[in-house]
Design goal:
The structure is a homodimer. The first copy, chain A, is mainly α. The first copy, chain A, is built from 16 helices and 2 strands. Chains A and B meet through helix 4, helix 6 and helix 7 of A and helix 4, helix 6 and helix 7 of B.
Chain lengths: ~325, ~325
């Protein structure tokens, strides 16, 4: 059996191919923002997962390139619209589309990207069309639901940890899972294998998002590429904050609540105080334990896939790198 | 041959069926706005056209109900996002979604409606899947392009009449054309018939939109359901205004330019003055002549369709009613 391609091979392939997807040229006010958004880069993780899964199950990955690009365009569409909703000024250290152009253009070029992703998703073997579109559209609905739950949580006074895991499962994890299952579908993998590779992606995605929460507070700013502790300043109901509220009592709970509700504060002071509370409650360790739980589940799911272990190494390596954030 | 169903039959059928499309329930902050938008009603013109075309070509319309609903959900998604971009407070005399909820919810529930429309579009005979999705997504892209051109025109100092016709062709007419062709595809109509029924819809759609421009200035406010002459007040580059700029010279052109560029004005005075200019240039007649041109072209396209004349009566009647705005 020939060795499978590395994650980096697929990521670079996608990075190259995505610059050449066919897009209209006029009106340029619609297509320039789309080209800009696509050119901002990123890990190209989702299409790489699709192609790796396809190769794992014996598929010819060159035949799945179009839907792989479709998944990436869809992902970028969600980022574009999320940036409007979050009023985010920056995306990958560059101006967001609504900032660089305007909000209306951002809404509409996002809509157009979504249509484009659908077009790419239909460039597959007709035998796989119905199943893969059903999965893709179901996932797209779930991603919207996840984003709405995320916005709802901002307004809710209390959110349970289960609700939070459900939300990140929808907003982040199902698209990774979908990409992996699509690759399996295009390779004619069994339903059981499709399910296992889907679960691998779902659990990995949850672990990945929880780690994002940790990195926001404890990550290396330079390596992680964004300012630390934005979540603390904005009172974002991350796993860490929810766990802290769940664990704290007495004067610690009182102090956490005070920082959470205080409108005027010194940012450095707030970050330092909340971190001290987190440390006193072992929140970092508790979150890392939760991450491990999901991460090991994902590795179990991958183990259950009916392919030689030697062939699963690439996906395993990607999962481990992802947890280290070395990619 | 049994008589075909009337436009009203299909419109009522769609009105009934669309209330029952399957939508999630949670988060309700996502699905309530979608149900609200769908419940606002409207003529249900596009799905009716799809079903009528399907029946004209000998199809069993009951098998095309899902994609017909898909076209209507897609149309409503475009209205929802257009309302955000236009900052419109009202839609069919009720609050718009971004007004009743908020902008983020309007963006996201619009996105979700688009996914829903795609799901409905895939509920067809697998033999028609590829062709019908290709047409639907091509059309969706064109509708976005049309909306972008419309926004671009607001900023452009000059717009030609040809550019304007191109824009309304994309923004409005291609979706009518697409609906009709989809009905033909599902009934296994010939490529030639598909083309003719598409052209019928495209020309009819352009005529319909031009008539909208006339009605905004000269329509019966009560019957038309919106305040007169909003286009004049907002300097909207309609066919009437572009034709007036093309036709006017000397002092008339000077006066028109003055009203067009003046920031402070009395609304009643501006409407009356611009109407007087339009009248002096016979703008209403010139526009009606253009409408007739497209309307008669559409009837020619319908004539070219290879179906018995007696069967084309229903589509003809719908087209005529549409021009009278009696429906």
């Amino acid at each position: 059996m020939p060795p499978l391609h590395t994650p980096a091979f697929f990521q670079q392939l996608v990075e190259k191919e995505i610059q050449h997807i066919s897009l209209g040229s006029e009106p340029s006010s619609l297509y320039d923002p789309i080209r800009y958004m696509i050119s901002l880069g990123g890990k190209r993780l989702r299409p790489a997962l699709l192609l790796m899964s396809n190769e794992l199950f014996g598929g010819d990955y060159t035949l799945s390139l179009q839907p792989a690009l479709g998944i990436e365009v869809f992902h970028n569409f969600t980022l574009l619209h999320d940036d409007i909703m979050d009023k985010a000024p920056l995306r990958r250290a560059k101006s967001t589309v609504h900032q660089k152009w305007n909000q209306n253009i951002a809404i509409l070029s996002g809509d157009t990207m979504f249509v484009k992703s659908c077009q790419l998703m239909t460039s597959v073997n007709p035998n796989h069309q119905q199943l893969s579109l059903d999965l893709f559209f179901k996932t797209a609905i779930e991603v919207c639901e996840g984003q709405q739950l995320d916005m709802d949580f901002e307004q809710q006074s209390s959110v349970s940890i289960n609700e939070y895991i459900e939300m990140i499962g929808l907003k982040t994890a199902v698209l990774l899972a979908c990409a992996l299952q699509l690759g399996a579908i295009y390779a004619n993998a069994s339903e059981k294998d499709q399910l296992n590779i889907y679960r691998f992606g779902k659990n990995l995605g949850i672990a990945f998002q929880l780690q994002d929460d940790v990195l926001d507070v404890y990550g290396d700013e330079k390596k992680f590429g964004k300012q630390n502790s934005g979540d603390i300043l904005s009172n974002k109901k991350t796993f860490l904050l929810l766990k802290a509220f769940e664990t704290a009592n007495g004067s610690t709970l009182h102090e956490l609540s005070r920082w959470f509700s205080q409108a005027d504060f010194d940012p450095t002071e707030k970050i330092s105080a909340v971190k001290t509370i987190y440390d006193s409650l072992n929140i970092k360790q508790a979150t890392e334990k939760e991450i491990e739980k999901y991460f090991y589940s994902s590795l179990e799911n991958l183990k259950a896939v009916s392919a030689p272990n030697s062939q699963k190494i690439m996906l395993q390596a990607l999962a481990i790198d992802l947890m280290k954030r070395d990619i």
